[in-house]
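Q: Sequence in, structure out?
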Amino acid sequence: MREIIAPNLMKGVIVVCDRYVDSSTVLPGRGPQPLARSSPAHHQFAVGNVLPDLTVVLDVPTRVSLARIQQRASDLPNRMERENIDFFKKVRDGYLVLARSMPKRFFVVDGTLPEEKIRKLIWDEVRKRIGG
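A: Exactly. Output:
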């Protein structure tokens, strides 16, 4: 945040990252809560008041997600990918709760659509938001 994101935002650069504060907000154990009501001190320390203008959630049914992890041959599953189905269901539910609680910031895309359709939906939303 301090070394890359904030300095680039100050220059007016559009910053894209694959995870941010939402990922730790939705992890089981914390419970899915809207970020506005659940800003713990470590989130405040880590990111200050900087929240994304757009968060894209690729929504995939839990069983599909697990099947995709198992199909990947290029990598061994990481610690989180080795969790059970209940873990993944709670994470998915957490993201969907956040998306419903902040609909202006979140854009939920059906992750079971063809890749090209997903790409088009996301780019159309990005262009709409940046005025391009």
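The chain has six helices and two strands.
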